[in-house]
Amino acid sequence: MSTTTTLAGGCLCGALRYNLIFPMASPPNCLHCHCGMCKKSTGAYFETYVTTPYAQLHWTTDRRPKQFQSSANVKRGFCPNCGSPLTFEAIDDPKISVIVGSLDDVDAVKAMSHIYFESVARVAKEVDRDLPKYRGESELIQEPKA
Ligand SMILES: [Zn+2]
Ligand SMILES: [Zn+2]
After folding, report:
1. Are 102 and 62 spatial neighbours (Cβ–Cβ below 8 Å)?
2. What CA–CA distance (Å, rounded) separates 77 from 74?
3. Among all ligands shown, which has an atom nearest to the Cα of 64?
4. Under 8 Å CB-to-CB from 60, ≥6 apart: which residues?
5. How many angstroms separate the CA atoms of 46 and 124, rounded?
6. How buried is 143 (Cβ within 10 angstroms: 0-12 exposed, 13-18 middle, 19+ buried)?
7. What was the pLDDT predicted at 88?
8. Residues of the chain whose pLDDT is less than 50?
């Protein structure tokens, strides 16, 4: 029995393809980010990504994402041919995030939290509503008990 899981993905045009390969016992952290930059970058109400050590992301095509530095320490990777957003990485961080929408099977991962929930879009408020919600990246938002 295999002890690793492989998730394949890539951009819309297929010029960039990857495999995420990780131990079954430690799946990548997955979260929804509601910050304004993620909305702009993906053109969606929020962005969901999985965060994984660089060594677990294997590009299987020759090309690499083009990078746009969206803030002082963040670079966002996208396909230079079709424009699909693919990655998100903080400079000096040993981990890289992969945009879940680029996975071939988006249901293969499940988010565990929301960050920047203070910026949540109206239509996204009910998405995964039972998950913990954070203001910014780490300030837990206490919800009134129902
Ligand atoms: Zn492409
Ligand atoms: Zn964000």
Report:
1. no
2. 10
3. 1
4. 17, 18, 19
5. 7
6. exposed
7. 94
8. none
pLDDT at site 146: 65
pLDDT recorded at residue 2: 75
How many angstroms is it from 112 CA to the middle of ligand 2? 15
- Domains of the chain plus CATH, in order, are 4-140 (3.90.1590.10)
- What per-residue confidence (pLDDT) applies to 75? 96
Q: What separation in Å is there between the alpha carbon of 115 and the centre of ligand 1?
A: 28
Q: For residue 144, what pLDDT is reported?
A: 76
pLDDT at residue number 1:
63
pLDDT at 126: 96
Residue 23, beta-bridge partner list: 4
CB 98 within 8 A of CB 57: yes
CA 145 to ligand 2 centroid distance, Å: 27
User: On the CB side of 104, how many CA atoms lie within 13 Å of its CA?
Assistant: 12
Task: With H, G, I as helix, E, B as strand and everything else as coil, classify residue 122.
Answer: helix
83 CB contacts (<8 Å, ≥6 apart)? 12
Token output for 85 = 């957003």
